[in-house]
Design a protein that fits this description.
single chain; mainly alpha; 2 domains; 17 helices; cell junction
Length: 296
């Protein structure tokens, strides 16, 4: 577990170690089957997998990069924006949401397991069944890592979490736990998921009221609470930017007074949340059909 947080070279060596990832997944599957999701060894296994999934899209071996990103590489581009796999255009980036992963292997081995739907379902199962905060946080964090990029893999993982594995109810529960790091990681995962336009209606229906409910009534009082509030605001921004319906849902959940209160805080310490709330307010005002409702 310590070694897996040793940086890019450490992650690379461990991902390449024959049988290591498979053994970790095997152990966790056994723990879940035996109804023992709270043992220390399971926590260690999940934390290792969490660390090994960090920067995965960027650090993939060339053979996987070629098979997964071949369609992206074959798309002509003129915008010389630096990216993980050479230059790519904004149009290509937009198309990536519709680019499916190659067909999943029924028996993934090694690094292939890290983004496979089997492990995604294991993480969601641990989020639902484990009561260990570190196990919950690591499971959420692994999914956050896997959905953090802009290529086809993160969007495919996001679709699996939301639509194929029905993961939103378990993630929503984590918004209401008392442990601040677990809550923060759950919100960060939802922020990643909400970037996928095809999933926004599902996410808004399932968790938008819960996101509003966990927003503080005024400027948050700690760094981690500030980061959590900022992530909530950016998630709500993603969900409402192109949807007047979702903006109205936010309004009916009494989110506007909270967002205004957070935006009016000008303390340097908490400017991240204040700035995010201001960006959200500006976006909400773009829905001109809601101006009368806003004013009321």
């Amino acid at each position: 577990r310590n070694m897996s947080s040793a940086g890019p070279e450490g992650r690379k060596k461990m991902r390449e170690c024959d049988g290591l990832i498979d053994s970790l997944v095997y152990y966790i599957q056994g723990a879940i089957a035996d109804h023992e999701p709270n043992d220390k060894a399971t926590e260690n296994c999940v934390c290792i997998l969490h660390n090994l999934s960090y920067q995965l899209e960027i650090e993939l071996p060339e053979s996987y990069a070629q098979s997964i990103y071949m369609q992206r590489r074959n798309t002509p581009n003129n915008d010389k924006t630096p990216g993980c796999f050479g230059t790519r255009s904004r149009k290509v980036k937009e198309k990536q949401q519709d680019t499916p992963l190659p067909e999943e292997k029924s028996n993934p081995k090694g690094v292939e397991s890290l983004w496979h739907s089997t492990l995604i379902r294991i993480y969601l199962s641990l989020i639902a069944k484990s009561t260990r905060n570190y196990t919950q946080e690591a499971s959420l964090g692994a999914l956050q890592n896997l959905t953090a990029g802009t290529g086809p893999m993160p969007f495919a993982v996001a679709r699996t979490v939301v639509q194929k594995a029905n993961g939103l109810p378990s993630i929503r529960t984590m918004l209401h736990v008392s442990h601040p790091a677990v809550k923060k990681t759950a919100v960060s995962l939802l922020r990643n998921l909400s970037r996928n336009t095809s999933l926004q209606s599902d996410i808004a229906r399932e968790v938008l009221p819960d996101l509003v409910s966990v927003l503080p009534e005024s400027a948050p009082g700690s760094d981690i609470a500030c980061e959590t509030a900022a992530s909530i605001c950016y998630t709500l921004y993603n969900l409402t930017q192109s949807s007047s319906h979702n903006a109205r849902l936010l309004l009916s959940a009494d989110g506007l007074p909270k967002i205004i209160a957070i935006s009016m805080n000008d303390s340097n310490m908490f400017s991240k949340a204040s700035r995010a709330a201001s960006v959200l307010l500006y976006s909400l005002w773009s829905h001109t059909d809601l101006h009368n409702a806003y004013k009321k």
